């Protein structure tokens, strides 16, 4: 479910390096008070034992080419061919940073499997090793998730945005397996451009805005009823170009209103009765006329800026 749409994960180089975002994008999100506060530690349910990690790493090392650094960054393993200090820094400042904050607000369970995060230093390394290690010819220059190999395969030279996006999916899969694609991709893409806000992950406007604004102006954005009811085939294969961005900017709206985290938990808890999250969305927003809400949301979207 995660491998077929990697072309849509395009991210301009350098976006969503959380540390960088904090420095450069505070103005773009003036309502946010950035802070270096660390989130509280929470124990993950269904975590793996030390012995399981050890066994996994031992087996993994047989496939890791020479010159790569292998680091355990629970619940993932990070493998990279940049300078060992750089791999370590990315492991901490992007992978751990993201995992800590996603757990803080959304996810109590770790992914079902130990997933390897391969950080290839440039396009040449990425293409070469995707082929040699996984037998893949990537159709995206940024990175992708291989469900078959339980691996995130990243060209890390293009920035950390896609990596943060992809980290959301295995957590969603273990915490909210029935999550429909609009919310799964909306949350992943929300954090392609993000920063820390008082120990919480905070999405910012990004490159997906321009296309959405154009679609709004051309009156081409479907109703939220239609968006939220899309199955995987409709969402991924019949995308008119706005499914990701409409989802993303709906979640950004909820975030700005302080409703996103509550919405996620209410959605998950009520998913048996409301699998699309549509009724929960109406309740969370406190609206009964979603057409009128869409008009309001669209004018909010048109007023956003990026960069
Ligand atoms: Zn995704």
Brief descriptors of the model:
single chain; 307 residues; alpha/beta; 2 domains; 5-stranded mixed sheet; two-stranded antiparallel sheet; 13 helices; 48% helix; globular; disordered N terminus; binds zinc ion
Give structural notes.
The protein has 307 residues and is α/β, with parallel strands linked by helices. The protein has 13 helices and 7 strands. A 5-stranded mixed sheet has the order 1-2-3-5-4, with helices on both faces. A hairpin with a 2-residue loop joins strand 6 and strand 7. The longest helix is centred in the first third of the chain and has 22 residues, at 84-105. It is globular, with a radius of gyration of 19 Å. The chain binds zinc ion. Zinc ion is lined by residues 165, 169, 185, 188.
Strand content: 5-15%
**End-to-end CA span:** 31 Å
Helix fraction by DSSP (H/I, runs of at least 4): 40-55%
What compounds are bound to the protein? Answer: zinc ion
Question: How many beta strands in the DSSP annotation?
Answer: 7
